[in-house]
Design goal:
By secondary structure, the chain is an alpha/beta fold. It is built from eleven helices and 18 strands.
Length: about 325
């Protein structure tokens, strides 16, 4: 399977949490947590479509102002997702500035928060000086926070001391592989039409739909969607990334993480402390590297990436990574 999601940590393992996920074949990216974003270029920032914030601690939200500054003068719609209380947090951040010269701006921030099976949503428009719009709400018993034609995000609320910290699972709706040899045999020229073709499949369009297929000689051939599915493509279960930020080392949290990350292609999970410091990890409400590795193994994840290390290990940076990988691989 070719990876549709291309994740990388914005900062090093000791820096603020922020996972940048570029979506292949699209000029779009997702951001999980919004810590310090100065390592991202303006071009990378402007690809961000949605931001998923685990909780409102400063190291997970401080980068919001940089996003706001980058998008303010553009005709864009930024989606922010988070736990209960996120609407009020963003409202307060926006209220911290003077907005008297933006009546012609069309930028919109929509905030959606999840709490115990209920979703609430509110939009803030630049041309209304970011005054909060009407509050909408609806149930979400299955933990689905957002669903698009290409991907979905499901959540679990983990305890982090006295607050909730959301864990997110990003999953491709359906992976559609294109057979390059079949394209070549029929002299179909690769290009943007393949993205349109995949979107038709993901949206369950009728097989009778006609697709304009460019040929290598410059002509265009009209082929039915059903025929194209049969001769140039096959479908399989999509890619899955699970992102876990700050989490207390409890059995309840562990089971939630295992359920959310089941068979993930990659689990990205905090590993703040060494297991020798488990009692300190409990007091600080963070996971140890060993626990993170064990959770990845129990979930059946294919790959593991640990991050969000405590600065107490700054002089021994390999310690936490080694501990996590040993537990993950069962060595």
């Amino acid at each position: 399977m070719r990876a549709i999601f291309r994740p990388h940590l914005v900062n090093d393992f000791f820096g603020d949490p922020a996972l940048y996920v570029r979506i292949a074949h699209q000029k779009k990216a997702l951001l999980f947590d919004c810590g310090d974003l100065h390592a991202l270029s303006q071009r990378e920032l402007l690809k961000i479509d949605s931001v998923f914030i685990s909780h409102g601690h400063i190291d997970h939200l401080i980068g919001f102002d940089r996003l706001l500054r980058a998008f303010l003068n553009l005709d864009r719609h930024l989606h922010v997702y988070g736990p209960a209380g996120m609407i009020d947090l963003i409202k307060q951040r926006l209220a911290g500035y003077t907005w008297d010269l933006i009546e012609k701006q069309t930028f919109v921030v929509t905030v959606r928060e999840w709490n115990a099976g209920e979703i609430r949503e509110c939009s803030f428009r630049a041309n209304e000086r970011f005054a909060p719009g009407p509050l909408q709400s609806w149930p979400s018993e299955d933990g689905c926070l957002v669903e698009t034609a290409g991907w979905t995000v499901h959540v679990q609320a983990l305890s982090h001391g006295d607050i909730d910290s959301l864990a997110f699972s990003l999953e491709e709706t359906q992976h559609i592989a294109i057979h390059k040899d079949a394209l070549a045999a029929r002299q179909y020229r690769p290009g943007p039409w393949l993205t349109h073709f995949k979107n038709l499949i993901k949206s369950s369009a009728p097989d009778s739909n006609i697709v304009d297929v460019p040929l290598e000689n410059g002509d265009v051939k009209q082929v039915s969607l059903g025929t194209l599915k049969r001769i140039i493509a096959h479908c399989e279960k999509g890619m899955k990334l699970t992102y876990v930020a700050d989490s207390s080392p409890t059995s309840e949290n562990s089971q939630k993480i295992i359920d959310l990350a089941k068979n993930a292609h990659m689990l990205i999970i905090e590993a703040a402390f060494a297991h020798a410091d488990l009692e300190w990890a409990k007091r600080c409400h963070h996971l140890t590297a060993q626990l993170s590795g064990e959770l990845a193994r129990a979930a059946g994840a294919s790959k593991l990436l640990v991050y969000h290390h405590s600065l107490r290990y700054h002089d021994t940076p390999a310690l936490l990574w080694t501990e996590a990988m040993d537990a993950f691989d069962g060595v």
